Amino acid sequence: MFAFHVHKTDGAARLGELTTPHGSVDTPTFMPVGTQATVKAMRPADLRANGTDIILANTYHLMLRPGAERIAKLGGLHRFINWPHPILTDSGGFQVMSLSSLRKLSETGVTFRSHLDGAVVVLTPERAVEIQALLGADISMQLDECIKLPATPHELRRSVRLSAIWAERSKRAFESVPPGRALFGIVQGGDDPRLRVDSCRALVDIGFEGYAIGGLAVGEPQHVMLAMIDAVMPSLPTSCPRYLMGVGTPDDILEAVARGIDMFDCVMPTRNGRHGVAFTRFGAINLKNARHAEDPRPIDAESPCLAARDYPRAYLHHLIKANEILGAMLLTEVNVHYYQSLMRQTRAAIANRQFIEFCQSTRDSWARGESAAS
Amino acid sequence: MFAFHVHKTDGAARLGELTTPHGSVDTPTFMPVGTQATVKAMRPADLRANGTDIILANTYHLMLRPGAERIAKLGGLHRFINWPHPILTDSGGFQVMSLSSLRKLSETGVTFRSHLDGAVVVLTPERAVEIQALLGADISMQLDECIKLPATPHELRRSVRLSAIWAERSKRAFESVPPGRALFGIVQGGDDPRLRVDSCRALVDIGFEGYAIGGLAVGEPQHVMLAMIDAVMPSLPTSCPRYLMGVGTPDDILEAVARGIDMFDCVMPTRNGRHGVAFTRFGAINLKNARHAEDPRPIDAESPCLAARDYPRAYLHHLIKANEILGAMLLTEVNVHYYQSLMRQTRAAIANRQFIEFCQSTRDSWARGESAAS
Question: With contacts defined as CB-CB under 8 Å, which chain B residues touch A37?
Fold first, then answer.
């Protein structure tokens, strides 16, 4: 059965625990993104070994290939991908906007063409809930309309209104989903703090197990994103988990945790890893850079992560330049390990009521960079 | 110090042990191919865990990128790639023929353009030995000319003569390599058994630590390949390891072991894995095939290899269709595990003098296929 408990707070930062049908998750938590039913370049057991408690799966991709009904027939997503731990699925709304063509939006739902084969697909709030139920998601997200910024006030208002209507329909559809699972609402409103509050109140009136802040991390400056979090926080129930969608850099995460966010997802550790960027306690290191070509040092000689500890930077540089799969594998692991160890340290710092000090020392270490360590 | 001992024989099949500066290798052995300083899609620790004792690295690729001098400066190939176990390097001859353009062959060596950047590179027998010494190979191969079949008798004779001259120069150059490492000669002669014997005798006169049979597995029928092995075997010293280059299918390996071959390398388990083919005790399974799209069974429920045991075929089918890195990772592991377990069983069968029975039961299992097992 889904549940959420806040065990401790330190300022606005919260140490909590999500309970789901597939196990519990300590919060604040970071969810690696498994777009096409795989967190790219990582085996599930290695995700787990590197501290991952919950992953995100993309409804849009899975509904198109291999299909939600097929996954249900095979026993659900957890069994399909060999990940017996919690899974959150997004609603598909964001990818419909960013990946598909020929979108037609109405109050009923959205009609689009698949980016894979051009097939016409209809996604309604009810179908989005149904797909996520077929996948067997521990946490489902309502279908929302995620519009691009900048947007006119008129567009923003229309999209907030539509998302609220869809939220209500999602909630109703979710009543026929097996019990124990959770449905989260998604706050929209672009960069307008008053619209954000309106959106938030409408969702709280409907009532969800958790609340997400959507439509951010789409290119806006960090201070805008943080201002939107600040705007909605007072209107969100303290008893429910708060999820900042698609965020972000390690610094974004610390800023958001400091404001009371409990959950994050982002492609950054996996995607940037495949492109040669390692996240470390010294900040980000771009291994594609020629200055690493003859560097015998590992990424971090003191890391418990073997990918960070046992391979020369010169080798990682070579693998990325040669477009070798092993480069993607090793740097993805380095980054998932770093993100999850940052979350673990974050939780420990909140437990010890030293979160501010932890943020300061972490930022100092990023700012000092590698020079101090070598 | 390099050494080779035959512990037991069963017919012509031999159970032996190679000793190298980086550890020993039980033979018959299979060497996965690490073309660009990585066995594609596998971490070194996973190669080892799946039974790999020695890998092959490609001189041609490494001399072009990242460069032999650079790898030497970084402490050698073993340290560069985080593989502290034995490494055999080829001489670059085969790839010069198959990958580079504008080759000019003379008795001195071969001049060619890099397939990466078009740079003009000269490879001589002496330089091939030097590169392999810089890499720190436990076993080096002489530079040879590997010509395409079919070839005229005149071409074949010329290439055998050239390879013998290069063998002699390689041997001389190898005298300045640090002691303990080994140099192997390569028997050429195309599909002409008499030329194969001539080539073999010339090499044995020069004297090498081991002898390879090259220029096969290039598209000829299996019976031609086996006839060439049969032709040269009587001329090879029983005290030295015998290496059949670029071979092959599981069946090729059993046939060659039965004729006294001790060492193999092939891209087949790794390349075919990336393309969706799993090697199993039921024969090869092409996971790309649509009939696997809804199959909940793993590749082999009784395999100790988690990649073969814990993932539905439907999922592997999906990963390969979606071109996901994890598909390449899992099927590469399935195949390396299968090849290495075949070699382990081969060694056990020779030890028990049951190699013929083992070959028969293995072939029966391949022929029965999956139907009998499901």
Answer: 315, 318-319, 322
